[in-house]
Amino acid sequence: MATIELDQVDKYYGSYHALRKISFDIADGEFVVLVGPSGCGKSTLLRSLAGLEEITGGTIKLGGQRVDNIAAKDRDVAMVFQNYALYPHMTVRENMAFALKLRGDNLVDRNAKVDKAAEMLRLTPYLERYPKALSGGQRQRVAMGRAMVRSPKAFFFDEPLSNLDAALRVDMRSEIKALHQRLGATSVYVTHDQIEAMTMADRIVVLRDGKVEQIGAPLELYDRP
Ligand code: ADP
Ligand code: ADP
């Protein structure tokens, strides 16, 4: 799986037209940020890319294959949400290993993958703790770790930092960007924060009322004379 291709993507919720003829491609290794005001369709588009939302018209392809034709277990993508969605009754290690257990990795493999991700995320000292004993930033790192251990080709982030305080948000921006580069992943990142978009994106897609209003590198969009 390499590029992500969107061709004339349309989405209706009943009679409400949430996405309107959206077409653009995302290259392998790119960090694309979807930005725009609340309700413009960012989450809908992201969920559609991940195959979690059925579109009404047009096509979405991951690595040349229509996303709706790829079985969920073969979709080589991971979502990271703002609310972490960690299991409270599981330790950090168990949280991070959960998806690997489901797909049948053995204990030795699971531990090796979790240890490696924990080291990259500076979570090694916390592996045997429960989520409630972690700070917000640490929980967000565990959520990242859970996504990373499966070595997905693409990460889909839905406002992952919006629950964190301002200083931590700034640190986590550069951490996420560094991880993206180190993993050689393709990332699509939703935010309503223009500064976040500016500092993180290779390319920004500005959505308004379900349409692509602008698309380009940060300086092309915001540094016009
Ligand atoms: P954003 O992420 O940019 O805030 P969303 O993609 O969440 O926007 O929502 C886009 C529009 O679609 C909004 O007007 C929202 O109310 C509507 N919408 C989102 N999900 C649903 C749903 N499941 N059913 C009906 N309308 C929805
Ligand atoms: P066709 O390919 O002839 O349009 P299908 O039965 O294959 O018919 O598609 C059913 C519906 O799924 C169509 O409305 C199509 O727009 C939609 N669709 C196409 N690509 C995707 C996708 N990637 N995700 C979800 N729905 C899609």
From TrEMBL:
A GO molecular-function descriptor: ATP binding
Membrane-topology descriptor: Peripheral membrane protein
Key words, A-Z: ATP-binding, Nucleotide-binding, Transport
Domain ABC transporter: start-end pairs: 4-225
Record localization: Cell inner membrane
One CC-aspect GO term: ATP-binding cassette (ABC) transporter complex, substrate-binding subunit-containing
UniProt record, GO biological process: carbohydrate transport
Family: Belongs to the ABC transporter superfamily.
The protein, known as: Sn-glycerol-3-phosphate ABC transporter ATP-binding protein UgpC
Organism of derivation: Ciceribacter sichuanensis
First-to-last residue of the parent protein present: 1 to 225 of 356
